Here is the input.
Amino acid sequence: MKNFFKAQTLGFIAASLFTLCTSISAHAQDMKGDDSIYQALGKTEGISKIVNDFIPLIQADPRISSFFTKIKKEEFGALLIAQFCELAGGPCQYKGKDMYDAHQGMQISNAHFNALAEDLQIAMEKNDVPSSVSNRLVAKLAPMQRPIVSK
Here is the structure.
């Protein structure tokens, strides 16, 4: 009887692990294969235009400009392009710091984070990105709030 329950439990665990692995694999393939946001943003060229409009906005925004006084504009822009491209399902690969390390000690508040998101929305509007697409990109960026906001 004991062996029967042990065998049943092991069978259940094996089936659960198989289901979990299959589900994760399918989700990863879906995520990797879905480049609809990337396409709708105009691929890397469109994302570059958005970033080129976005950087001056954040540098001029009195709510957050102090965070961007010492950036190397081209390097920062290239990192943003790669990050947005990757998050949008494009072929790019972000190779910058993780969000915790990149923002450590900066004392960024929710208000700062939201101001940056507003400026990104403005840059996307300026580039005629449909709101449904911009909302999808912002939704991909939203999980970054936790590692960025520290105040």
